Amino acid sequence: MEKQRIDELIARYNAGLATSADQKQLEHLLEQGIIQVHQLQELTALEDQLVKLNEPVSSKNLDEQFYSMLKMEKQAMITTSAWRNFFAWPQLLPKIAIASVTLIIGLAAGYFMRSPATVKGDQQIADLSQQVSDLQEMMMLSLLEKESVTERLKAVSLTDQMDQASHKVTSALLETLNNDENVNVRLAALEALRPYIKDSQVREALVRSIAAQESPLVQVALAEVMAQSQVKSSVKELKKILQNEKTPSDVKKRVQETIEVLT
Q1: Consecutive sets of 10 residues in the chain, 263 residues long: mean pLDDT of each?
Q2: Cα(230)–Cα(201) distance, rounded to whole angstroms?
Q3: Predicted pLDDT of residue 102
Q4: Helix crossing, 59-76 with 89-114: angle to 10°?
Q5: Which CA distances in Å does 87 have to 74, 154, 229?
Q6: Backbone phi and psi for residue 147, each to the nearest 5 degrees, phi listed first
Q7: H helices of 15-157, where?
Q8: pLDDT at 98
Q9: Fewest CB atoms within 10 A around its CB: which of 2, 69, 101, 220?
Q10: To 10 degrees, the CA torsion angle through 108, 195, 139, 181?
Q11: Distance in angstroms (rounded) separating the CA atoms of residues 241 and 150
Q12: Domain assignments of the chain as residue spans, ordered by start
């Protein structure tokens, strides 16, 4: 492959514009040793691809947002095709979840601002907060089933808004890390799991995940997580990467550095 073509691929990846085909070509180039991992800006392009949801700023704005969204949905129901689209279950579930989350947060914020801080009031706020968490979890699990990479990235980013991810959520993230066909989605899942590495089940699952990864980018990212969290039990699995003849030399170097930190 011509150097100009390779430079264009790297530039698109670092700008967050790489397609699935581009990513596969980069993986191939890494495996052949034609390019090095550090040329991909230490994977920082991933951050630009995560879709962040806007946080509510006040109960008034949330109410306006909810009713505005409700009005748009009503208008969309005018045509027959929009009617069928709106009530198709895969499209309906995220819309219900988003509208419900917005309304519940708005009601909770309004109640908190207008009512005295009583034990009963605190319990009601806690109940509403739990309902929001349940809806976020339901929406995340639903989006992870989508074919669109963007939708799956949205699903992973929802965990940033959760105070504490449930076992069901962390299990879904681990499944995504091990099996999603898109490298960026797998890297996003790994980042989402990072805060939960102190959980012994999550930590052990991440160690087992090392052997399941063929992508050099994910291998390096996992090695960095192991080093930063001082997961010494990962050394055995990391050595398997070194022993694999297909592992690019640059990746082997990074993994070797991780092993030296852990031993």
Answers
A1: 75 74 76 72 48 44 53 51 45 55 59 54 61 76 87 88 84 94 93 92 94 90 93 93 89 92 90
A2: 16
A3: 60
A4: 150
A5: 12, 22, 46
A6: -75, -30
A7: 20-32, 45-49, 59-76, 80-86, 89-114, 119-143, 149-157
A8: 58
A9: 2
A10: 160
A11: 30
A12: 3-35, 51-164
> Which pLDDT belongs to residue 72?
60
pLDDT value at residue 76: 53
pLDDT at 46: 46
17's tokens: 């514009």
Alpha-carbon separation of residue 151 from 80, 127, 177 (angstroms) = 25, 28, 15
Rounded CA-CA distance 40/36 in Å is 8
CA torsion sign for 183, 184, 188, 189 is negative
Q: What whole-number distance in Å separates Cα of residue 102 and Cα of residue 222? A: 35
**Quick one: CA torsion of 250, 255, 257, 263, rounded to 10 degrees?**
-160
Q: At what angle do helices 119-143 and 89-114 cross, to 10 degrees?
A: 160
The reported pLDDT for the residue numbered 3 is 77
**pTM of the predicted structure, to 2 decimals:** 0.59
Spatial separation of the C-alpha atoms in residues 238 and 115, rounded to whole Å: 56
Residue 50 has a pLDDT of: 45
Give the position of tokens 């709106």: 86
Q: Which two tokens stand for residue 263?
A: 């031993």
